[in-house]
Amino acid sequence: MKTLVLDGGLATHLEALGADLRDELWSARLLLENPDLIRAVHAAYFAAGADVATTASYQASVHGFMARGLDGSEAARLITLSVELAAQARDEAGGGLVAASVGPYGAYLANGAEYTGDYDLDEDGLRAWHEPRWEILAAAEPDMMAVETIPSYPEARAIARLLKETPQVKAWVSFSCRDEAHLNDGTPITEAAALFSGNPQVVAVGVNCTAPRHIPGLISRLTELPVVVYPNSGETWDAENRRWLGLSDPMEFGQAAKEWQELGASLIGGCCRTTPEHIRHVAASVG
Q1: Whole-angstrom Cα distance, residue 188 to residue 136?
Q2: pLDDT digit string (tens) for 79-107?
Q3: Which domains does the chain have, with CATH numbers?
Q4: Between 20 and 30 A from 264 (CA), which of 36, 103, 255, 257?
């Protein structure tokens, strides 16, 4: 299987271009205020060598937009717009794929729960919460869904149910992990991945928004399906001083991507704090 190069941090490059994302809607705020900037970020990643654009729908939920005062139809229009913007950038780049981002319930909560899985909803509640956005994104006909940063087993089960209910949808499913073997809620990644084993709708299972040092061990535990990995930069957030500590060199990130490819990953990109320069080095390393 040819290695697909994914894009990097959408919000990271939006901020580099001057966007203020200090908002519960995060990058989805730009769907309202500056959609052209989102398209420009997609274009930058395609120019850097990405094969896939991941849409700005990670934090774009019907519930989140309605909490902002929009009605359901306007929320649906903005979620659909996220796919249209990525498709426009793809067409301008002369080819590529569009993956519609399906962020976790914790992203909507905007309280860090996407990194713990500490939720106030059970599996049925999570399925019901995800369903409106899922249906809107499916109707927009992206090439696939990018189910991202899933921190908990109940949420993975809810996603598996939605996939079964929409047999026309293809998806990758990517978990956020706390170490080399477990989701952030403590579930072994082998147990969560098994929910999707043998499902022809699932194009890959893997890990994102996780420290690069954990990636080799996690890949070794994912053997039933193609593997997707797009870790963060490895930097850590100093909450007291509100700054990032450490520095992830794009060249080193590209070299690590080659290792992940050799270990078995076939969809490789970056998450938080990675940039078009990181993706340029990934493309050069795995191409």
Answers
A1: 31
A2: 999 999 999 999 999 999 999 999 999 99
A3: 4-286 (3.20.20.330)
A4: 103
